[in-house]
Amino acid sequence: MDKQGFPKDFLWGGAMAANQVEGAWNVDGKGLSVADMATFKSNLKLEDYEGHVAISSEFIEKAANDPSDKDYPKRRGIDFYHRYQEDLALFAEMGFKVLRVSIAWSRIFPTGEETEPNEKGLQFYENLFTEMNRLGIEPIVTLSHYEMPLALSTKYNGWVERSVIDDFVRFSQACFHRYKDLVKYWLTFNEIDSIHRHPFTTAGIIPDRCPEGKEEEIVYQALHHQFVASARVTADCHRIIPGSQVGCMLTKLTTYPNTCDPKDVEVTLKKNLHNYFFADVQVFGEYPTMIERMLERKNIHIKMDPGDREILREHTVDFVSFSYYMSLTESAKEGMEKAAGNTIMGVKNPYLPATDWGWQIDPVGLKISLIELYDRYKKPLIIVENGMGAYDQVENDGSIHDPYRINYFKEHFKQMKEAVEEGVDLFGYTSWGSIDLVSAGTSQMSKRYGFIYVDQDDEGNGTLERKKKDSFYWYKKVIETNGEDL
Ligand code: BGP
């Protein structure tokens, strides 16, 4: 067996999410989604941060009744809904073996509670997956990537209500039945751990609907419902699509102690254990004892139905997927200088450079993450998000030189390769935002991740024309040589 380099069938490709690319927010019967509420100024945490406006019932009512997309960049996306053929052709030109996309739940069930799916919504994704198959691009499909029908959020406070599990199962079953011949790889919830950081986007939880002092308990309750839903749809997927593979999806927040002071090491260990907890439940099929103790200590009581623990135990995932953008540093001391990545916050690591948005760049941290994850779970791994948000400059001749992006990927790929050579079972890699898209955290268009430039600014001006950046040609060569020519 060849133990050098990436596996022969390594799945190289890219990733995106429906609400950051599709646009067409109100066509073909699509219902409003929580993502359609996002403005530059809104943010989606329980509390206000960095001058953003926290989501509230009042804010949502106003946004839901605003029929325009002017202030809502995610409603515009990059018009992938109408341009997907052109975009897929560009991905195929780069040699993509795989593309990670998500399905907008509110295209299929506009309010979440219909008994019959919306045919036009189903048809759109059928066309998309058929075209991908024609081009030899394997789809990896996320069922829930930061969106749900807004009606489920406003009616039930989102995933806080147990009945939403059934709604999600109905939606997922409709997808499995319709796409069973087209899609083999499925992910249930994108960055399931993010419910703690932005509960509205992840789980439709509206802060002013949470009784004071109960916010944390409510978040854990909603999370439990997502765990149960994930296990139930994993079972359905295996039953409806023989040979299918289902993965969990974790934000890998690899955290280092700031010093070797045992107090720093202990807080770091606990932080890492909490980050693992989300995948632990989905891979091992049970809540870790230390998390249950922590919940007890905090007087947090999760209501479980009889049978929930059994469902979790019986329907675990086949593989582990994760996003990796940065590492974090933790200290037991107060008042340390911070480094941020949207809603993620750590102590500043003096050894690492950062992107224009302050995300600390750490390729070795990716290798560490791969080794940790494989050692813990012993399941096949796939990196389904990694990349660098940056400002790009279009030259007079239309070219876009992005050596910073090439360098970012190059350094990360070297580390991936080393991890694989050391024995990690990594079967694929999808870079985040292979085409420029609307940022999840800031709703900016100018925070660009793509190998393909999209002519659109933060206000929505532009022709939407696609242009190849230097990194486009570089990534094509990487794929052609299966990661040998970096
Ligand atoms: C992840 C999300 C993506 C994505 C990415 C980059 O957390 O799953 O949807 O957008 O982060 O974040 P941002 O767009 O805020 O730069």
From TrEMBL:
<dbReference type="Pfam" id="PF00232">
    <property type="entry name" value="Glyco_hydro_1"/>
</dbReference>
<protein>
    <submittedName>
        <fullName>6-phospho-beta-glucosidase</fullName>
    </submittedName>
</protein>
<dbReference type="GO" id="GO:0005829">
    <property type="term" value="C:cytosol"/>
</dbReference>
<feature type="active site" description="Nucleophile">
    <location>
        <position position="385"/>
    </location>
</feature>
<keyword id="KW-0378">Hydrolase</keyword>
<dbReference type="InterPro" id="IPR017853">
    <property type="entry name" value="GH"/>
</dbReference>
<dbReference type="InterPro" id="IPR033132">
    <property type="entry name" value="GH_1_N_CS"/>
</dbReference>
<dbReference type="InterPro" id="IPR001360">
    <property type="entry name" value="Glyco_hydro_1"/>
</dbReference>
<keyword id="KW-0326">Glycosidase</keyword>
<dbReference type="GO" id="GO:0016052">
    <property type="term" value="P:carbohydrate catabolic process"/>
</dbReference>
<comment type="similarity">
    <text>Belongs to the glycosyl hydrolase 1 family.</text>
</comment>
<dbReference type="GO" id="GO:0008422">
    <property type="term" value="F:beta-glucosidase activity"/>
</dbReference>
<dbReference type="InterPro" id="IPR018120">
    <property type="entry name" value="Glyco_hydro_1_AS"/>
</dbReference>
